[in-house]
Amino acid sequence: MNNSRLVQEVKEPVFIRTAQAAGEYLLQNIFVPFEQFEQEELWVFLLNARQRMTYQVMVYRGTVNSIPVRQTELFRLAVRLSAWGLLFAHNHPSGVATPSEEDVLIYRNSRQAGELLNIEVIDHLVVGRNAWTSLHEMG
């Protein structure tokens, strides 16, 4: 597996069992320092059946306020590596962690795609400056 900046194997034991754990990981390890993110980035985190993170992948870099998304790209590595589940996350360069209608639609479509592929989509977090919002928790 190519361990470039875009696809990284996660070797330390990181377990994502709650939105809180995911949000803290993202704020401390991915979207840091927040000010450097001038464009939206969409990340996919692969999980095994124990909800341990195995890979983190930056799938898309968009504009200041949008990312065009194809579900195929979100699930590609998960299918290839037989991941049990996925966590999605993207930043809002504005610093506001409020999901847009498009964010909600992408999450719903991802959950449907995951059901078809038998891959659990545990959450999609929108990350702002020192804050995050869980779409799973929003319902």
Q: Explain this structure to me?
A:
It is a single chain. This protein is of the alpha+beta class. It has four helices and six strands; from the N terminus they run E-H-E-E-H-E-H-E-E-H. The protein is 31% helix and 28% strand. A six-stranded mixed sheet has the order 1-3-2-4-5-6, sandwiched between helices. A hairpin with a 5-residue loop joins strand 2 (41-47) and strand 3. Helix 2 runs parallel beside helix 3 (101-117). The protein is globular. The mean pLDDT is 94.
Q: Descriptors for this entry?
A:
139 residues, six-stranded mixed β-sheet, single chain, 31% helix, 4 helices, Cytidine Deaminase, domain 2, alpha+beta, globular
Helix content: 25-40%
Order of helices and strands: EHEEHEHEEH
CATH class: Alpha Beta
Assign the structural class, choosing from mainly alpha, mainly beta, alpha/beta, alpha+beta, or little secondary structure. Answer: alpha+beta
- CATH topology tier name: Cytidine Deaminase, domain 2
Care to count the β-strands? Answer: 6
Shape estimate: globular
Write down the overall mean pLDDT: 94
State which percent range the strand residues make up.
25-35%
The CATH homologous superfamily is termed: Cytidine Deaminase, domain 2
Q: What count of domains describes the coordinates?
A: 1
- Say what oligomer this is: single chain
| Spatial strand order of the main sheet | 1-3-2-4-5-6
